[in-house]
Design a protein that fits this description.
Structural class: alpha/beta
Number of strands: 7
Distance between the termini: 20 Å
Oligomer: single chain
Helix content: 40-55%
Strand order of the largest sheet: 3-4-5
Order of helices and strands: EEHEHHHHEHEHEEHH
Mean pLDDT: 86
Shape: globular
């Protein structure tokens, strides 16, 4: 129950296409790149719904490895490169809100660090990000605010730095009020 609001508007009954046109763009869990299409074609698809609002040069600058593989089939990329491609595809829609669903899932620790560094760079550029990830420590390290969920229920919330510093105390404090 409740409402889903974005920039003051109730968007609960809007189609996914309408939400994308508002600037809400999701990078789905599991990357879901179009494996048989080239890296460049995957990126161009990201600009389709909003009329190529961003330039591909923005994505090349953020992820130079993708520029080097622009003609390769997306399915031949490593997991980390596919995650970069999925994020790059979302950036092509020039999002006002970027939803990242489990960007570290299935990646080696080195690649997780690289992906989170890119997310941190996007945040520094002013991109509003809603990040959902089981790697709480990495997510809280770059977040302003955090919510800890357990079996679908919020058990802690607050400044990310506070949750990161003492997550057990934050959970106890919130649960004491429940």
């Amino acid at each position: 129950s409740g409402t889903l609001r974005f920039e003051g508007a109730d968007i609960g009954r809007e189609s996914p296409r309408q939400r994308v046109q508002r600037g809400i763009v999701q990078v789905p869990e599991g990357r879901q790149v179009f494996g048989a299409l080239s890296v460049e074609d995957n990126l161009l698809l990201g600009a389709f719904a909003r009329g190529a609002a961003a330039t591909i040069d923005t994505v090349w600058a953020l992820f130079p490895v993708l520029r080097d593989k622009r003609s390769d089939d997306a399915g031949t990329l490593s997991g980390g490169q596919q995650q970069m491609l999925a994020i790059g595809r979302a950036l092509m829609a020039d999002p006002r809100l970027l939803l990242l669903d489990e960007p570290s899932m299935g990646l080696a620790p080195r690649l997780v660090a690289e992906i989170f560094n890119h997310i941190k760079a996007l945040k520094a550029q002013g991109t509003t990000i809603l990040l959902v990830d089981q790697n709480a420590r990495a997510a809280l390290a770059i977040a302003d605010r955090g919510y800890v969920m357990e079996t679908g229920r919020i058990v802690a919330e607050g400044r990310a730095a506070d949750l990161l510093r003492d997550p057990a105390a934050a959970v106890r404090r919130i649960c004491d009020f429940a």
